[in-house]
Amino acid sequence: MPKEFQFQVSPQVAASEDLLAQQVGKFCNISPKEIQKVVVLKRSFDARQKAVKVNVKGNVFLLGEEYIPSKIELPHYPNVANQQEVIVVGAGPAGLFAALQLIELGLKPIILERGKEVRGRRRDLKAINVDGIVNEDSNYCFGEGGAGTYSDGKLYTRSKKRGDIDRILELFVGFGATPDIMVDAHPHIGTNKLPQIIQDIREKIIACGGEVLFETRVTDFVVKNNEMQGVVLQNGNIISANKVILATGHSARDIFELLHKKNILIEAKPFALGVRAEHPQELIDKIQYSCDYRGEFLPPAPYSVVKQVNGRGMYSFCMCPGGIIAPCATSPGEVVTNGWSPSKRDQSTANSGIVVELKLEDFKPFQKFGPLAGMEFQKAIEQKAWHLAGETQKVPAQRMVDFTQNKISQNIPKTSYVPGTASIEMGEVFPGFLSQIMRQGFVEFGKSMKGYMTNEAVLHAPESRTSSPVRIPRDHYSLQHVQIKGLYPCGEGAGYAGGIISAAIDGEKCALKVAESLNLK
C-alpha cells in the first residue's frame, strides 16, 4: 500500500520531482533510494505568510510495491446514428457535455449552433478587435464551445459535488487537456489550448452518429398542447423532436425574447455588473506574494476580494492573471468587456471583473419589459457605453484613483484591450447608485490589498455579462420547463450554472433526465 503524505513545501521543491521526493522521504522517514514514485493528488498555493508555500497532498510508492500509472480514458461512446433524436440548442459547455452524455445513454444528439466552428470564429474575432465589426452570430460569446472557448478555460466551481466535478475534469483530460487540471486547486486550460479540445469533442460526437450543425440559428419553437414538437430554423426549416435541451448561454437575448413572445414562462433574475480592472501583473505579484520579484517557481498571482458596500456585495469576478481584456459585444451598438489568459498566463497585465450585485428593484425603470427588465437594464448600459466611447468598439476607461475622485483621466495608458479606450468619467456610464458603490468599494479594496488602489490601474466599462439576466424555470425533479413538457432549460443561459464546470455538469444532468423520461436510464 502506498503511504499518504500532506505537507507544505517551497515553490521550488514543488516544481522538482527530485526535491519533492527528498522532502517526502524526510516526512515519511524513508530513504529517497527506497522511493519508486511520488504521485501528487492535490496542489495549492498558500500566500498568507510572507514566504509563499505550496500545499501538497499525495501518495508515495516504495520499490517493490505495485505502481500502475493512472490513465484517464474516455467512456464508451456507442454509435447512435439510428437512435432516438434529441435536439441540443447551443454548443457551449452545457450543450457539448449534454450531447456526450446523450451518446453514452444511447440517444442521438442534434446540436444546433448559431455560430461558426471553433477555427472559423477567429476571423470574426479579428473583425471585432481590429475593425470594430460585430457579427451577431459569431463572436466571443457565440460559436462552437461558447463563451468558454475564447475565454481561458477556468475550471473552478463552487459546486460541492466532487464526483461530478472530477468526471468533467477527466473528460477534459480525455479530450486532450493537461492532467494537471486534476491536481491544481484552481485548474485552468488556457484559451490557446481550448480550441483543439473543443474540436476533438465535436469530432467524437459526429463519429458516434450525432449531428452538429453550425450557422444554424433557432428562431421559433414548435409547441403543441404545451409539449415540444421541434424547432424552426432561420432558413425556415423545421427539425422535429419532442425532447429539446436549451443551452444557449447567458447572451442569447433573442431566445429570451422568443420565449416571452410565445408566453413561455421566464423570470427576471438578479445578476452583477461593473467594470474590468487591469493592473500590471508585476504589481499584483508584489501585493499577493509580498516580494519584489516572484521568481520562476511561482505562477502569476491571482487575487480574490469581496466587500459589502451599502448593503451590496462588490467582488472580483473571472480574475485573469497574465491575461487580456476582450471585446465581447454580441450586437452592433454596444460594448462589453471580459477577460482571458493563455495557458502560460505570460502577459504583462492582470485583469478582473469588479462587479456589484444587483437587485430586482434596480430594474424598475424597465418594468414595462416584464421578465426582460434586467436584460434591458443591462442592454441600456452597454449601449450608453458604446455611445460615450465614440460608437466603435472602444470602451469607456478611467484610471482607478481618478474614478474614486470623480476626475476624468488626462490620459489612458495603452491597455490589453485591443480596440482601444476613450477617457470617460465612469459616472456617466452607470446609474448613480452603482457608481457610488464602486467608488467606495475600490477605496475599501485598497485598504485590504495595499497597493491595489492606484492610478496605474485602468477601469474598462462595462463588465456586464457575468450571468444571465433571466431564469427559465424548470421542475426541480424532471428538469423540464414548468409549463412546456420536453423542454429542458440548461446551463448559464437558463440561470442554472456559472462557469464551464457547472454548465457542463448541468448539461449532463439534463441529458440524464431526458433518458430517464424515456425509460432508458
Structure at a glance:
With 521 residues, the protein is an alpha+beta fold.
Please characterize this protein's 3D structure:
The protein is of the alpha+beta class and about 525 residues long. The chain contains 14 helices and 22 strands. The protein has helices spanning about 10-15, 15-30, 95-105, 120-130, 145-150, 160-175, 195-205, 255-260, 280-290, 375-390, 400-405, 430-450, 490-495, 500-515; strands at about 5-10, 35-45, 55-60, 85-90, 110, 210-215, 220-225, 225-235, 240, 245, 265-270, 270-280, 305-310, 310-320, 325, 335-340, 350-355, 395-400, 420-425, 460-465, 470, 485-490. The strands form 6 sheets. A 7-stranded mixed sheet has the order 13-14-17-12-20-18-19. It has a 5-stranded parallel sheet with strand order 6-5-4-10-22. A 3-stranded antiparallel sheet has the order 1-3-2.
